[in-house]
Amino acid sequence: MPIRHFTKRLFSKVAWRAYNTYWKGLNYNTQFSRAVEILDAPLETIEAFQTERLEQLLQHAFQTTPYYRELLRTAHADISQIPPLEKEDIREQLNRLYSTAFTPKQRIRNATTRSTGTPLTFYQDRNYWNQRNLSTYYFDQWADWNFGEPQLVIWGSPADLEGDAHWKHRFNNYWRNQYWLNGFGLTDTAMWAALEKMRHDQPQTILAYPSSLYQFAKFIFENGLTLLCKFKGIISSAEMLHPYYRTLAEYVFKTKVYNRYGSREVGVIAMECEAGRMHINCRDLYLEIESPDPYTEPGEILITQLNSYAMPFIRYRIGDIGLLSDEMCPCGNDLPILAELLGRTTATFRTRNGTLIHGSYFTEQFHDIDGVTQFQIIQESLRHCVLKVVPDEKWTETTRYYLVQSIQGALGTMVVVTVELVDEIPLSPSGKREYTISKVDSDIDDL
Fold it and tell me: Domain 3-342's class?
């Protein structure tokens, strides 16, 4: 290993430890050992831990949160009798969901990334983030990630940030030993640059949106390129991992793709192990399937976040559909298994000159537009897009013009954009509303 690579990894490993111990106020060695002890424990120990933490959370919610004090009626409520927490409940009851045990300064504001068309604002606290980080570290190590090792991140990179935000992002990437490839706009130029950076830095793992990972792998495959670095694992997160995404990525990068399921609201929900099963993160959350028989009949996933005390998430309807398994995993880990996950994928759009635009680009651009309650963009072809809009009383022709111009600015001025005003965005077969759909180049040839 070249001395510069060894030195950078050592520096990054020390920086990670300092980040957790001093900046986050986390006694890393002790707490990470405790986290591993629970996540590697026998099923009986895991279930007892969950029961205890669930009882503590419900008592806290009843005693300190106006919303749950009225809803629960008692500090010893049966969780199965509590109505699910809907996204609309959070929007309408946000001020009553805060815990009075936390001051405004102790609450950390967060929001969804607008991939669902309408963003959701909520609050967390430092302990939640510390515990979330510990679990993320544990599960990512299943893909052979470790502190200090170089990593390629194909994500919604804030590449257009300016000033302090831009330099903070670059500094964080440096000490974390990460290189970002912007998943919001995969151009040939950007992917060629990423390949050169990979040759220079020799990343050992990849963290990526599944659709962006697929597009990068396809670029490498179609250009007949040979990678000069060896990967130990790939972590796929934030979207559905379609089989053809996995097939091509594993073929091109010569390593296993590990699917990670999580959300900004509740953290890591489940992670795929070496044996290919999705293990539920029972240390941080309690997962239910809203179904008469969650082992045979899929239903909506309800999440109770066991560490979210500043603003409790109890039986939160996350918007995905799943199915449980009662099998024992051959990997030896006793964490319960999420047998099936059905959810929305964010489409990747293609322009006539071959530029790839991540669907989240549009949901970011259309956030908080006056006159738009919901929207759906469908790329019918390279020359035609349909924009469906659920308007409100603020809708104007100026809004229509802005939306059309935004789409044409990304996909090309020759693209015809048909705007349809509708009463609602229909549900997809998975039970979710898909706000970005591309019908262009959705398949790959057999390898």
Answer: alpha beta
